[in-house]
Amino acid sequence: MSNTLLEVKRLKKHFAINNGLFKDKSYVKAVDNVSFSVMKGETFGIVGESGCGKSTTGRTILRLNELTSGEVLFDGQDISTLSYEDMRKARRKLQMVFQDPYASLNPKKTIRQILTEPLRVHGLFTKKEREEKAAEIIEIVGLHVSHLDRYPHEFSGGQRQRIGIARAVILQPDLIIADEPVSALDVSIQSQVINLLLRLQMDFNLTYIFISHDLGVVKHITDRVAVMYLGRIVELAKTEDLYDQPMHPYTQALLSAEPIRHPDQKRDRIILKGDVPSPVSPPSGCTFHTRCVSCMEICKTEIPLLEIMEDGRSVACHLYNKM
Amino acid sequence: MKEGIQLSTLKPLLEIRNLDVSFRTQDSSLRIVHGLNLTLAQGETIGIVGESGSGKSVTSLAIMGLLPKPTGFISNGEILLDGRKISDLKEKEMRELRGNDISMIFQEPMTSLNPVFTIGDQLSEPLKRHKKMSRKERRTRIIDMLRTLGISRPEKIIDEYPHQLSGGMRQRIMISLAMLGEPKLLIADEPTTALDVTIQAQILDLIRTINKQKNTSVMLITHDLGVVAEICDKVAVMYAGEIVEYTDVRTLFDKPLHPYTQGLIASMPNMNERKGELYSIAGNVPRPTDLPKGCHFSTRCMYAMDCCHEEAPPTTSNGCHSVRCWLHVDQPEGHSVEIEEEKNVQYAVRS
Ligand SMILES: Nc1ncnc2c1ncn2[C@@H]1O[C@H](COP(=O)(O)OP(=O)(O)OP(=O)(O)O)[C@@H](O)[C@H]1O
Ligand SMILES: Nc1ncnc2c1ncn2[C@@H]1O[C@H](COP(=O)(O)OP(=O)(O)OP(=O)(O)O)[C@@H](O)[C@H]1O
Ligand code: SF4
Ligand SMILES: [Mg+2]
Ligand SMILES: [Mg+2]
């Protein structure tokens, strides 16, 4: 019944890095063969540790980086092959909210300019109507019309993030990719912004891709979650299922590492050894095998595929390989 | 975790009494930290929680004698270590203390290691300064420490440079650096904030082990209540430069008294129904330049009464739980305020 808004197929983004004049180029496989689809109206989470490719996935979908290979179908249309101009037009429906509320707003522009610009660029409405829209949206995100003539530096982090969200929502997009939208904010401000995102989703029928390394926030806000490790999705499931019963050994370790909520809560922790390997020379086979407590021989040589289980969840791990 | 810590029964290692820290501005000075009282016994762990800008790092710098000179200074109160006043020591005496009795792990592991020296060079410093050891003994000692802290290939890492290591490894190097001097007190300022949860779990585990095995007292600064629940015996909640609540960890989670602490705990996503509206504290943290008259939290507090906007609440305490809020003062009238304030000072001196 639910219909697909976005379909990402075998997406790859490899960055070339130079090793100096005489050496060969090597590649960071930031996103390596990632496939998933996002349903209309849902919140799709992407979690994983720093450097696993969450932001690159988001940016590549929006073609803020060019993709290495793969397809991105938005409302059935392949946007990975659109011309620059057509892609610019398509972005009206696909917006992004960034992590850093300080860096993502132009310091020289007033809030009014920041909010009306996307409408102007897309040639929408008359000047007067655009101003009305700005006045309307600023109130919706919990600020005041009198704020419109101020500059970004006059606002706190949480207020700036509200402005960033207003700028994305003013175009009435279908999909918003929110990359760590609350990570830079204080705890008491985080909950205000999360509430805003939840409310806007209801009011404007938005679909979100919510990127975060904060497992608590992701659990609260998402419907389904993809867990990434070294550029690949290792597990994808409904949020409740994933948190109740993680299947991939990495997901299990990740969830168990979350700080406890109360001093009396007992810790049943899987402490992972070592650090995440370099994405330039990822381990052979299952890229998690160097840190996995259940590692078998096959894991060292063969890449496990993301297999769909009977209950609709997907796991990329030889432990669950149907032979 | 020790059971039902009485805030005043153990012999104190660190005592902070009525501490004010100020920064000089062009024509006057601005008070950033105000009226801080706390004590830490040998082997205890205390968490300092609070939002960005609440004065956590400034407090730790004051203890370490590392306030930026000449702008930052202690404008009132004192700090004692093992009964000895350390808040007015000469720079030379303070240097003696640092790395010996007190060590600190800073918020930014990247910026606090020197990029041009090897790990071994940097880790030799605390050993050179305080202990008579041969070069070879030092090397062995460092390798042992690195191994204890879960660094694989320590014989190799010792000759590498900071940029060759990951963030988690650098943070472990910082902990090695802090621990080599065998300090009585370890101050860790957001030691895991820049790290991933799986690495955070490793580092917290490590700090817990050090505390247990060496009986090192730990002051852990964080904005994450979960981290506090993990390893602290007691906790001080800071808001806009003041400690607003101070008690043992269980009491804080079970019976928070200050409206700010209550709000913080209630807004943890895990405390709320999934997809539902999160409890949230309205408004923003005031800047130190425009603190409200009266209670610093009064602009955001859902219980604020007239007196809250007029006058700063005193800290009241029952000996193991103290709170700075008018709701917990019996008679919010003029005269009793002074008495309460006096009691508070005595409490600090006694403990
Ligand atoms: N422009 C670039 N050039 C080269 N490498 C890059 C570039 N952008 C990202 N990378 C690399 O790609 C990998 C994935 O990075 P990405 O920013 O997507 O991670 P992330 O999951 O968003 O991490 P974080 O949680 O730290 O934001 C990393 O190894 C990163 O260093
Ligand atoms: N060198 C300085 N000169 C002037 N003001 C300063 C200086 N250092 C800190 N401050 C001010 O002191 C206040 C407290 O800062 P502090 O660094 O202690 O906050 P914090 O609680 O550690 O915050 P965070 O969680 O962001 O690390 C802030 O308002 C800050 O602007
Ligand atoms: S003193 Fe008043 S304003 Fe301050 S926290 Fe207590 S009730 Fe709220
Ligand atoms: Mg990112
Ligand atoms: Mg700090």
What would your notes on this structure say?
Chain B: InterPro entries: AAA+_ATPase, ABC_Ni/Peptide_Import, ABC_transporter-like_ATP-bd, ABC_transporter-like_CS, Oligopep_ABC_C, P-loop_NTPase. Chain B: It is a peripheral membrane protein. Chain B: Keywords: ATP-binding, Cell membrane, Membrane, Nucleotide-binding, Transport. The complex is a heterodimer of chains A (323) and B (351). Chain A has 323 residues and is of the alpha/beta class. Chain A has a domain at 4-93 and 171-243: P-loop containing nucleotide triphosphate hydrolases (Rossmann fold). Chain A contains 10 helices and 12 strands. In chain A, helix 5 (157-169) runs parallel beside helix 6. The model of chain A has no long low-confidence stretch (mean pLDDT 91). The longest helix of chain B is centred in the middle third of the chain and has 18 residues, at 197-214. In chain B, 46% of the residues are buried. Chain B has a single domain (9-101, 183-351), classed as Rossmann fold, CATH 3.40.50.300. In chain B, the strands form 2 sheets. Chain B has an 8-stranded mixed beta sheet, with helices on both faces. In chain B, strands 2-1-4-5 form a 4-stranded antiparallel beta sheet. Chain B is an alpha/beta fold and 351 residues long. The structure holds adenosine-5'-triphosphate (2 copies), iron/sulfur cluster and magnesium ion (2 copies). One magnesium ion is lined by residues 56-57, 107, 189 of chain B.
